[in-house]
Amino acid sequence: MSDSPFTSVISQHLPDLTPYESLYKHFHRNPEISTLETETNARILSELQTLNSAHNSPIEIKSPIGTTGLIGIHRNGDGPTILLRADIDGLPILEKTGLEYASTKRMMDTHLDNIEKPTMHACGHDFHITCMLAAIETLLNCAEAWSGTLIYLFQPAEERGAGARMMLDDGLYTTHGCPKPDLCLGQHVFPFKAGNVYTRSGPTMSAADSYRITIYGKGGHGSMPHRCIDPVVIASHIVVRLQTLVSREVPPDETAVVTVGSLKAGDTVNVIADEAVIQVNIRSVSEYWRKVLLDGLKRIVNAECEAGRATKPATFHKLNEFPLCDNDEDVTRRVQEGFTAYFGERHDPSMQPVLGSEDFPWLGSEIGKPYCFWFFGGVDGEEYERHVREGTTNEIASNHSPFFAPCLQPTLRTGVEGMVVGALTFVGKERK
């Protein structure tokens, strides 16, 4: 870290993180499902107002945007405008971590299906919120060391691929007066070694497209299949044939995934259903092969329905869509230079693409601006190294697991430092 112009700035101005550890535990205990993050929004708003009170109100707060999103606009002299983003929603998962601050919360998913669901921060968004707030305090403390405008954006509904679009459609850059940034920065905790940061230029997270597909048959008695058209058989052929998209149509050196997450039909054993429903998730890391996969999905479904004498064409309902996260080369190079100078060997600038997906890119791409998205580790260092030695890293609980439990430190500190270094790389007075 000795070569970084930001080392002394951060060492002098990073706040005591003990209160933020408590704040993180609060967010972890109180997750909220996508689009319903009202209490989370209120707590973030309260924390921003407290920071404003302590620093003569320099941050202009706008809330709500896109249901439960909010932003803080921090103007601090002339310079570039940089957007920093943190997502805030939890997942409908029953937590099984055993942590003393584990979530036991349940909530009605009134936006989706009116079903009560267990709720958990199983993807680390509680870390993202807390790291952002601590980074904001750091940037307030060191305001003399930078010049420009920072936008602190807290985004809802990332898990449904909807939140960024909701904020944009609600007039983020128009009605709500958010300055259009010169570039956007974001980060994500991941089951890598805690204390480390990971970057990559180019395709970094996959595009994802999810569909619910209904296949139509002709129902009847299980003893008389000749009088029926069985949609389960048609759907089963579709499930098997879809596996050939990756194995036989996408080159071996390309990365793609086709997953059938569910196949549902009927309610009892001796009745042939008249409909079958499959849900398909497709992930890709290039726009060309994304199109090949999506075209192949429709071709296979339609062909198998015809072969199975389906009573009418299948219907396709798009569940969600995530863009390809394609980090800008120049922006990423500058972030990497800042990270290498500050973190040293704890920065890996050549991570492999991640097949998870994010809607973060839309915040920049929709207005023609570049972005960079990076990762920071959340697995205790000794535990991680043991799994590496034993070849058992696949046993580490991943994001969306009911056992996902990043270690509190140095995860929190690294996430704060990463966000601050990322921002100062572009607005710091020591920037190149």
From TrEMBL:
<dbReference type="InterPro" id="IPR017439">
    <property type="entry name" value="Amidohydrolase"/>
</dbReference>
<keyword id="KW-0464">Manganese</keyword>
<dbReference type="InterPro" id="IPR036264">
    <property type="entry name" value="Bact_exopeptidase_dim_dom"/>
</dbReference>
<dbReference type="Pfam" id="PF01546">
    <property type="entry name" value="Peptidase_M20"/>
</dbReference>
<feature type="domain" description="Peptidase M20 dimerisation">
    <location>
        <begin position="210"/>
        <end position="307"/>
    </location>
</feature>
<comment type="similarity">
    <text>Belongs to the peptidase M20 family.</text>
</comment>
<protein>
    <recommendedName>
        <fullName>Peptidase M20 dimerisation domain-containing protein</fullName>
    </recommendedName>
</protein>
<dbReference type="Pfam" id="PF07687">
    <property type="entry name" value="M20_dimer"/>
</dbReference>
<dbReference type="GO" id="GO:0046872">
    <property type="term" value="F:metal ion binding"/>
</dbReference>
<comment type="similarity">
    <text>Belongs to the peptidase M20A family.</text>
</comment>
<dbReference type="GO" id="GO:0016787">
    <property type="term" value="F:hydrolase activity"/>
</dbReference>
<keyword id="KW-0378">Hydrolase</keyword>
<feature type="binding site">
    <location>
        <position position="387"/>
    </location>
    <ligand>
        <name>Mn(2+)</name>
    </ligand>
</feature>
<feature type="binding site">
    <location>
        <position position="188"/>
    </location>
    <ligand>
        <name>Mn(2+)</name>
    </ligand>
</feature>
<feature type="binding site">
    <location>
        <position position="159"/>
    </location>
    <ligand>
        <name>Mn(2+)</name>
    </ligand>
</feature>
<feature type="binding site">
    <location>
        <position position="125"/>
    </location>
    <ligand>
        <name>Mn(2+)</name>
    </ligand>
</feature>
<keyword id="KW-0479">Metal-binding</keyword>
<feature type="binding site">
    <location>
        <position position="123"/>
    </location>
    <ligand>
        <name>Mn(2+)</name>
    </ligand>
</feature>
<dbReference type="InterPro" id="IPR002933">
    <property type="entry name" value="Peptidase_M20"/>
</dbReference>
<dbReference type="InterPro" id="IPR011650">
    <property type="entry name" value="Peptidase_M20_dimer"/>
</dbReference>
